[in-house]
Amino acid sequence: MSQTATPAAPSAAPLDRTARTVIAVVVLGMITTVLDATIVSVATDRLAAEFSVSLTTIQWVMTGYLLAFTATIPLAGWAMDRYGARRVWLLAVGVFTAGSLLCGLAWSAPSLIAFRVLQGAGAGLVSPVGIAMVARAVGPRRMGRAMAVVGIPMMLGPILGPVLGGVLIDSVDWRWIFLVNIPVGLACLAWSVRVLADPRGAGRGRLDVVGLALLSPGLVALASGVTSLASPTGSTSEAVTGIVGGAVLLVAFVAHALRTAQPLVELRHFATRGFATATAVQFLAVGVLTGAGFLLPLYHLLARGESELQTGLLLVPQGVGAALAMALTGRLVDRGRGRAVVLAGVGLLVAGFLGYTAVGSDPGQAYLGFALFAIGLGAGCIFAPTSAAAYAALDHAAIPHATTTMSIAQRTGGVVATAVFATVLQHRLSTATAPADAFGVAFWWPLAIAALAVVPALLLPAPKAHTGEQGA
């Protein structure tokens, strides 16, 4: 078994300067968009007071960003084919940075919501385009190490966002949770113009208008419905309408995409075992981690009575675990040990959430710190190997559309899992004698979903020797 993995060893293919530069540019561009998705979560009360509006209204500052983010993801593959990844990347980072500036200058709740939508539209393209550029630059043999670095913003953003938001709101002003993005965005744009190559798109100019009319509204409707289901102020009728309507549109898109030569999102990639199983693992794992990003801070805020800043700092062990796992597992993935790393990651996720099911007995912070560290380690063991397996299984030209498909799966998993966890928690809070008891029950749900990821993880294909370095 070790002999089949030996030809794929990375020693003959180190990350060259071009690959390292592309990775660094992409990480710089992604980190603010990932942080921004959660940094606002600690500011809703302050924003409602600032603009003298209800929490129901100010909730659209987060919801509008989420919906715009979701709506633009499907365009990434087509846009890269048509205009080239570099141009789409510059547009995405530029729109996000401009939206950040406008958010910082907002004069009313409606203006802030509108500018957050603009922000989200840019952010939705950043991740799939950035990952596609990295995949093209490094090739399949070096994907494990590359994805380990690119995944750092995805793992740390939900943890560091509330910490940074709490610091900025307490020490400066709410506007700085948006303005802080501007120097980073401008630096990324300047660096991207200097160092990124400018290959033309593949010339696939026809936009799948029917697919766009079905997929983007379907994703938005689904996200809106499950967000309404998870919100204390949402109505059941709105939630059902959004979920059912979104599901119908998505089913219609699947039927359309399978009959169309050049669909907006290429679903036929799922016929490839490596891509299908890797995407399934990420759908479940990202769903668990996104939903946990809702449950974990809320537990510390409601059940333990800690402040926003204290809560963010107490969640740091999760980030440390994720960063450590990514630093250690990249080379293991490139040496053909990806499936074992993913299975270890799933086991660590399950163990970490098992620790949090005991919160009803009021465990000490050291105990919870170890549980969070295990969750972080598990998360860090999953992203790089599954990304490497997904892209290694496909033809090089398919990468732009593959990254779009995987981004949609990640976003959908996150939205649905968060809604399920929030609904379970609300129900338990209404019946439990203590908030900690309600959270103890709610944490069984991410544990169960993480355990389900064992099935596609076991089906990940065994590594194969690579005969060449595509796109190096």
Structural notes for this entry:
It is a single chain. The chain is mainly alpha-helical and 472 residues long. The protein has 2 domains: 2-207 and 264-458, Growth Hormone, Chain: A, CATH 1.20.1250; 208-263. The chain has 21 helices and no strands. Helix 14 (273-303) runs antiparallel to helix 19 (435-442). The longest helix is centred in the C-terminal third of the chain and has 41 residues, at 316-356. The chain is globular, with a radius of gyration of 21 Å. The two termini are 27 Å apart.
Cα end-to-end separation: 27 Å
Q: What's the CATH topology name of the largest domain?
A: Growth Hormone, Chain: A
Low-pLDDT ranges: 1-12, 465-472
The number of helical runs is 21
- Tell me, rounded to a whole number, the average pLDDT: 80
What is the number of E strands? 0
The major β-sheet equals: none
Query: CATH homologous superfamily name of the largest domain?
Result: MFS general substrate transporter like domains
CATH architecture of the largest domain: Up-down Bundle
Overall, the morphology is: globular
Helix percentage: over 70%
Strand content bin: under 5%
Which descriptors would you attach to this protein?
472 residues; Growth Hormone, Chain: A; single chain; globular; 21 helices; disordered N terminus; mainly alpha
Would you kindly provide a brief summary of this structure?
The protein is an all-alpha fold and 472 residues long. The protein is 78% helix and 0% strand.
Layout of helices and strands, plus pairs?
Elements: H1 2-5, H2 17-39, H3 44-51, H4 55-58, H5 60-72, H6 75-83, H7 85-104, H8 109-138, H9 143-171, H10 176-179, H11 181-195, H12 209-230, H13 236-259, H14 273-303, H15 308-314, H16 316-356, H17 365-392, H18 399-431, H19 435-442, H20 444-452, H21 454-458
Helix pairs in contact: 2-8, 2-9, 2-11, 5-8, 5-12, 6-7, 6-8, 6-18, 7-8, 7-11, 8-9, 8-18, 9-15, 9-16, 9-17, 12-13, 12-18, 14-17, 14-18, 14-19, 14-20, 16-17, 16-20, 18-19
